[in-house]
């Protein structure tokens, strides 16, 4: 947890880097351009940094390239547009399938009429063998034509089914991306807000407990300032992996903001939630951080965790506030520990 003054100074440093990049490349200081370079300076969007580095490696960086990167990786409308585009394609494909079904229905009607005509002709023909032969040949030909049309229809339906399946995958991928934190691959704040509302409603209806963990990396700012934000990102991914490996089933693990993570544990009592929290804490503490470029050991990371369980009348805000107060209690008690409902007293004091 960072002091507001530290956040102010860090944000100014990122702003200086962003402005420096725009000056060096002689790009207008439009809000869009600033957002791209500020995000690049923070290093929190790996896809954006990779895209920018790829363009920089080519030796030039025009406004069109910057606009493309913004639209693909930062624009608030990018997921909506992608989902809308896929939705339109799905609707068009469904329209094509319905048209094929209508054509098939017409073919069936025509075939039925051919059978009816043949039946009437049989009645009229009586025992005339030559007439019977002609009628049978007509029926065979109609059947062959119907089979051929059915094969064509089946092939087209199979193609449409494959395309619709692919479109559904694209739609799900866009939806997943819009709800995922790009740095840690955990759920993002948007998904977390939806999940806690849903799980609290489920818990209230069923009477089952819902517990919440809030995790914060101890002394993260000092570590980040000492080794740089790229190593800081490595720390965030390490903690995220430890969280992810210790949740299962319907549990929800999310990046809450900055160096804080939250875990929602449906059907989990306070005591069981404490056990999960301890597993996460020990998993993080057990991982040694190495500097990739040199193999140098950077030591071990520790985290503090606050635990709260839903009470009657709780709102999402009140439940999170209680978990947050227990997190601060864990910090005050020396960090690298879990503090839960039964042992923490809320306090306004905050510790990094």
TrEMBL record:
Tell me the Pfam families matching this sequence: GGDEF
Q: Which domain of life is it from?
A: Bacteria
Q: Which E.C. number(s) belong to this protein?
A: 2.7.7.65
Gene Ontology CC: plasma membrane
What positions does the domain GGDEF occupy?
A: 208-343
What the entry lists under SMART domains is as follows:
GGDEF
InterPro entries per the UniProt record, alphabetical = Diguanylate_Cyclase (IPR050469), GGDEF_dom (IPR000160), Nucleotide_cyclase (IPR029787), Rev_trsase/Diguanyl_cyclase (IPR043128)
Q: Which residue stretches, if any, does this entry annotate as coiled coil?
A: 143-177
Keyword set, alphabetical order: Coiled coil
Catalytic activity, per the record?
Answer: 2 GTP = 3',3'-c-di-GMP + 2 diphosphate
Instruction: Please give a single GO biological process term from the UniProt record.
Output: cell adhesion involved in single-species biofilm formation
Its top-level enzyme class, in one word, is transferase
Protein name per Swiss-Prot or TrEMBL: diguanylate cyclase
Native organism:
Blastochloris tepida
